[in-house]
Amino acid sequence: MLTDLQIAIFGGDARQLEVIRKLTEQGANLVLVGFDQLDHGFTGASKMDMGEVDFAKLDFIVLPVNGTGPNGEIDTIFSNKSIVITSSHLKQTPEHCHVYSGITNKYLNGIIAESGRGHTQLFERDDVAIYNSIPTVEGTLMMVIQNTDTTIHKSNTVVLGFGRVGMSVARAFAALGARVKVGARKPEHLARISEMGFIPFYLDDLKKEVIDTDVCINTIPFQIVTSDIISKMPTHTLIIDLASKPGGTDFKYAEKRGIKALLAPGLPGIVAPKTAGQILGNVLSQLIKEEMVNRKGKP
Ligand code: NAP
Q: Could you tell me which CATH number the domain at 6-124+272-297 has?
């Protein structure tokens, strides 16, 4: 149980509702910032504005999956008020206060380092990233279906990257009958791609591998689908970029060439917020319990 713990949830999307549900069920006292337009109330949770939060009492802070914006802005779909978190907020928390987010960025790393507080990126954990790849794949299928007039079956689909998301995407598209090629840079990845029945290629050969592509799905958070690559694609190619913002595609060049390229962030929160939120809520409550056990073990 998380009884007597003070946990602040700052903003987020519908996934946070499952996180709130899970943490309140476990007896935590929650401070909700950025939820003023949420009709639903939760026992054990109080809605507040940023200025009303007593940071000195917080044991844990839960940020949205994307962490913050480049200047500390916190996204929320439940409020029109702007919320910004700074290092001075974090410095007011007790030294043991621990911060959770899905991913991080330069700004968030900076305020964490300045304040000296602990920080966990949930999506760095393989279990979270793999579970989360399930709704991500479903969202990708939805986007491809909505943006093509041909079937996935028999399409030439190129998947870039063979990590937690890339592997799940490749498997789902192949299961629907697509001819799936996967680009990676490590020989062991090429071996596994081949073992799983997909067509492997080295990313260095990307330019020649895209000449007959119908759908290109990027999972590499690095400029990989450059103008050079896009110039070799057929004009009907659909590019879905799943990599975290700003993605790995030259979107301006794609538009210039008349190729549809879509950055598709946060798909789990869009297509399956309940499942995606349950994944986060379960792991968060487990991590907070482990953190409490560690703290008790400290002299
Ligand atoms: P991951 O397991 O770390 O996989 C990333 C892949 O990109 C690996 O195959 C990695 O290859 C490759 N890669 C990274 N940097 C590279 C570079 N400079 N050149 C070539 N290859 C490179 O990550 P993941 O969990 O699959 O997530 C992939 C991306 O999707 C992340 O940006 C994540 O934030 C995002 N994501 C988006 C959604 C959404 O809804 N759009 C949902 C979940 C995740 P190596 O192993 O060789 O490094």
A: 3.40.50.720
